[in-house]
TrEMBL record:
InterPro entries: Beta-lactam-related (IPR001466), Beta-lactam/transpept-like (IPR012338), Diverse_Enzym_Activities (IPR050789). Pfam families: Beta-lactamase. The lineage of its organism: Bacteria, Bacillati, Bacillota, Clostridia, Lutisporales. Residues 33-328 form the Beta-lactamase-related domain. The keyword Acyltransferase does not apply. This is Beta-lactamase family protein.
Length: 345
């Protein structure tokens, strides 16, 4: 039975390398009980290739924040003005002429329910998003610049509005800065202390300007963007491998990083701007429709994806974990994820 599954998985992955958009991929799938483990690379990647995991980093940041909450150093209901001078934050969230900045909470940051705009994907007055600029050339971005860019954009709703969520990197950038203030350490040291060293993630680190990792493809163009990745910090700056990400993902759901009793609190789903994605606290949920999935019904997966084609998800109905990347900005990985999961039917 296992040989049959492996053959199916190999076939699906090899077919995914079309050399039009997907030039390399690495996938790791493991069962929750550890009885099944498969890792495979194809195209221009190897099983130990390091790549920018992008927004999967948000799960690492969430794990740190929940750990700090568990140690009573922080609360879900703490407001951001407890950690920054009011004048520094002023103008961050002005909706219909009224300022809501100072009532933004840790819970709202974790769940993308602040209503804040996204400095990364939304266009400024010049008609360009930071994503557009990053695709043209690599450059660094400071937290202050991200904050000012956010202030120049319009919020989408009042923070905490019932049933509303808008995915925005600044939410996790703020969480990273808050963690630094509480721990009195740099972000790299915080990830090392709370996650990387305890889990022995030997190929995982917060990106630096000197970091070497797989070039990220934009259509047929490979992009080297170490300055941008180093700037992405708590919202998207970690570099890792599929195997290290698997260790992290399993640990996130099994209580090795924070008290497992917090998990049910994280499963409070709201729709975000990318249908059919939903967001809880520090994690996404995807339930694919018949039109969008090669399978019907497609099983629920919870975890996180990244804008560079990365993914780290748990499929409860199959008790499977899946991590990896297709390393392509202009193609989402969900069809491949579901085709791979289908091999276990």
């Amino acid at each position: 039975m296992e040989t049959s599954i492996v053959n199916k998985l190999d076939k699906v992955l090899n077919k995914a390398i079309d050399n039009k958009k997907v030039f390399g991929s690495v996938i790791n799938i493991e069962s929750a009980d550890g009885e099944f483990s498969w890792i495979k690379a194809a195209g221009k990647m190897e099983t130990d290739t390091q790549y920018a995991i992008a927004s999967i980093t948000k799960m690492y940041t969430a794990a740190v924040i929940i750990k700090l909450i568990g140690e009573e150093l922080l609360s879900f209901d703490d407001t951001i003005d407890s950690f920054f001078p009011k004048e520094y934050l002023s103008g961050l969230h002005i909706y219909k002429g009224k300022e809501y900045t100072y009532s933004i909470t840790i819970r709202q940051l974790l769940s993308h329910t602040t209503g804040l705009p996204d400095w990364y994907t939304e266009k400024n007055v010049k008609g360009k998003s930071y994503f557009d600029e990053m695709c043209e050339k690599d450059r660094a971005l400071t937290f202050d610049e991200a904050l000012e860019r956010t202030k120049s954009l319009s919020p989408h709703f009042i923070n905490g509005a019932k049933g509303k969520a808008f995915y925005s990197d600044i939410n996790f950038d703020l969480l990273g800065e808050i963690a630094k203030k509480i721990a009195n350490k740099e972000l790299e040291c915080i990830y090392n202390q709370f996650i990387i060293e305890p889990l022995r993630l030997e190929h995982t680190s917060l990106g630096k300007a000197t970091s070497i990792f797989a070039p990220i493809y934009l259509n047929t163009n490979p992009l080297n963007r170490p300055l941008f990745v180093a700037s992405a910090g708590a919202s998207g700056g970690i570099v890792s491998t599929a195997q290290d990400t698997m260790k992290f993902l399993k640990s996130f759901y099994t209580g090795k990083l924070f008290n497992k009793s917090y998990l049910p609190m994280l499963y409070q789903w709201n729709r975000i701007q990318w249908f059919p994605m939903e967001y809880g606290m520090g994690m996404m949920r995807c339930k694919m429709s018949r039109l969008m999935s090669p399978l019907f019904p497609a099983p629920e997966i919870i975890g996180h994806s990244g804008s560079t084609g990365t993914f780290a998800f748990y499929c409860p109905s199959k008790s499977l974990f899946i991590t990896g990347t297709i390393n392509q900005i202009n193609k989402h990985p969900f069809q491949l994820i579901y085709l791979l999961l289908h091999c276990f039917d």
